[in-house]
Design brief:
This is Efflux transporter periplasmic adaptor subunit. It is found in: Cell envelope. Keywords: Coiled coil, Signal, Transport. This protein is α+β, with helices and mostly antiparallel strands. Among the domains are: about 80 residues, conserved putative lor/sdh protein from methanococcus maripaludis s2 fold; about 70 residues, Helix Hairpins. It has 2 helices and 19 strands. Strands 2-9-12-11-10-13 form a 6-stranded antiparallel beta barrel. A 4-stranded antiparallel β-sheet has the order 6-5-3-8, with no helix packed on it. A hairpin with a 5-residue loop joins strand 1 and strand 2. Helix 1 packs antiparallel against helix 2. The radius of gyration is 39 Å and the shape is rod-shaped. The two termini are about 25 Å apart.
């Protein structure tokens, strides 16, 4: 995995001096700063109660995954059942009145046909029938509204994500618009807070090394925020396969904040005896072992912190 940019792969420039030797030269490599990043959800969403009432069911807890539209809780208002019962009784009464009005209209039509009654009376009976039909339609529409209010007692997940917090418990009385569950959705990322003195050295798109459980991951500096708060710059890092078991968990991140000169040699040129690392170096007086202090290793190269200077000739195995 490429963790230290392409520079560390060629941490030094080597020049062949003769068969089996090389002349080392320093090159510029990234300077890394270790900071802690916090695992955060890209979107923080609140699943809210649409009606007020008692929370009679709570189907999720912290850490549960949810899908958009999934029912996660139920809020019930007992007054809705009473309102529906009242409207049903009203509809029953209106239906009986409509039947009576239709019967009166039929008798009136018969009397008009026989010349016993007037057309004016027949029109009054027709109007009475239409009035009752209109009242029934209005009561049915009102009943549908109340039934829909009862259905809105289902609290639905607004998006795919993970349950972060559940601030209420079963049996609680909640108001319309009150948060029942907080979700984290839209994926997860690392948020960094870096001292502002390094702001000019940060570059969007740069590769970062993230120390996670089970190994080192490679991330990308996805966004730099222009607002500096408390002397620190905020940055977001995208990391494939980022561990999301714990939101707000802190992970160690290495951020490139500059460059420095470094020398490295092939790892197989190092000899270790009794805990001391040495290199075979060619000088005017011939070959001799030289004690060195080693730094980071990567792709078969070892950085030499001390004991080797630019222009030295190293014997290769």
């Amino acid at each position: 995995m490429r963790l230290f940019l392409a520079g560390f792969v060629s941490l030094c420039l080597v020049s062949p001096a003769e068969a089996g030797t090389l002349v080392v030269q320093p090159v510029a490599v990234p300077e890394w700063k270790a900071v802690y990043g916090r695992v955060e959800a890209r979107d923080s969403l609140a699943a809210r109660a649409r009606v007020g009432g008692t929370l009679v069911s709570l189907d999720v807890s912290e850490g549960d995954p949810v899908k958009a539209g999934q029912r996660i809780a139920v809020v019930r208002d007992d007054k809705i059942d009473f309102q529906i019962s009242a409207l049903d009784a009203q509809l029953k009464a209106l239906g009986a009145q409509l039947q009576n009005a239709e019967a009166e209209l039929a008798r009136g039509q018969t009397l008009v046909d026989k010349g016993v009654s007037t057309s004016q009376r027949l029109d009054q009976l027709r109007t009475q029938v239409e009035v009752f039909r209109g009242q029934i339609a209005a009561a049915e529409a009102q009943r549908q509204v109340v039934v829909q209010q009862g259905a809105e007692g289902d609290v639905l997940a607004p998006a795919d994500g993970k349950v972060l917090t559940v601030p209420v418990t079963r049996g609680s009385v909640v108001m319309a618009g009150e948060t029942v569950v907080t979700l984290g959705g839209g994926g997860f990322f690392l948020r960094l807070s870096i001292p502002e003195r390094h702001a000019a050295l940060l570059e969007q798109g740069a590769s970062l090394a993230v120390e996670a459980t089970g190994g080192t991951l490679e991330g990308r500096l996805a966004k730099l925020y222009p607002q500096i708060e408390g002397g620190r710059v905020t940055a977001d890092v995208e990391v494939p396969n980022l561990p999301t078991d714990f939101v707000d968990a802190r992970l160690l991140v290495r951020v490139p904040v500059g460059t420095r000169q470094a020398i490295s040699v092939p790892a197989d040129a190092i000899t270790s005896r009794s805990g001391i690392d040495t290199l075979r170096v060619v000088s005017d007086s011939g070959e001799a072992d030289r004690t060195v202090v080693l730094g980071e290793r990567h792709d078969g190269q070892v950085e030499i912190l001390s004991g080797l200077a630019a222009g030295d000739t190293v014997v290769l195995p």
